[in-house]
UniProtKB/TrEMBL annotation:
The species this protein was found in: Bowmanella dokdonensis
Annotated stretches, region: Disordered: 201-227
Superkingdom of origin organism: Bacteria
NCBIfam families: narJ
Gene3D superfamilies the record matches: TorD-like
Pfam families in alphabetical order: Nitrate_red_del (PF02613)
Protein name per UniProt: Nitrate reductase molybdenum cofactor assembly chaperone
């Protein structure tokens, strides 16, 4: 699913690289298996974001995904929290990457959603099953983003459409209606007071991950397209 590679890039930190492949991205969206309303929403997201100021986009991205845990792009944080089960789940996921003949290019947490989507995009007919497995998290993030009135919700709705999972967003929205925001200065100060800062080590054991959120170019096994986003999109034009 090349459309997963595109969504993965849109969920990663915004860069100037996206502007150079705007038309190719739109072509890929139009050729995808997404329903027409999802295609339009995704295309509108691309156009709106690339017509805006990059620094404003980056600032918004940080405000959404880098402050607080409610919109964390670390999938297992929403499933296991800070329990030991989360560490084991990441070890198991990393083992699945390696069993598929893949290696993470940098010290990244295996459950970081852009990276996970890159992996899922290489899994052929099994991709929908992978998406279905994480559909509850995708639905939760979609609902929370809608509550924050962010168009990033459309990316998660597209992923849900590709998963074919039955997720009731309206029900999730009711469940989170009374959630207190965790991205405010007061909430963030409380987190800093309660948690120690860990330096060094690898990503799985608490080290500081880098910004590179993708497998290396040698990792795709089901397509003759390198993992680099620009090349992958151009192949579809």
């Amino acid at each position: 699913m090349k459309i997963l590679t595109l969504i993965s890039r849109l969920l990663d930190y915004p860069t100037n690289e996206l502007s150079a492949v705007r038309h190719s991205m739109l072509d890929l969206i139009a050729d995808s298996s997404l329903p027409l309303d999802q295609q339009k929403a995704l295309a509108d997201f691309v156009n709106r974001r690339l017509e805006g100021d990059l620094l404003d986009w980056q600032e918004e991205y940080d405000g959404l995904f880098e402050r607080g845990r409610s919109l964390s792009l670390l999938v297992y944080e929403h499933i296991h929290g800070e329990s030991r089960d989360r560490g084991q789940a990441m070890v198991d996921l990393l083992a699945q990457y390696r069993a598929a003949g893949l290696e993470i290019a940098a010290h990244e947490l295996p459950d970081h959603l852009p990276l996970l989507l890159e992996f899922i995009s290489t899994q052929g007919e099994e991709a929908a099953g992978w998406l279905s497995d994480i559909a509850p998290v995708l639905g939760l993030l979609a609902a929370r983003l809608e509550k924050r009135r962010s168009d990033y919700a459309d990316l998660f709705k597209a992923l849900l459409a590709l998963s074919d999972a039955a997720v009731d967003l309206a029900d999730i929205q009711r469940q989170i209606a009374d959630e207190k925001p965790d991205h405010t200065p007061k909430a963030l100060d409380k987190v800093w007071e309660e948690e120690a800062v860990t330096f060094g080590g690898d990503a799985i054991n608490g080290g500081c991950p880098s910004q590179v959120q993708r497998p290396s170019e040698s990792q795709r096994r089901d397509q003759q397209v390198p993992i680099g986003f620009v090349d992958a999109v151009k192949k579809t034009a």
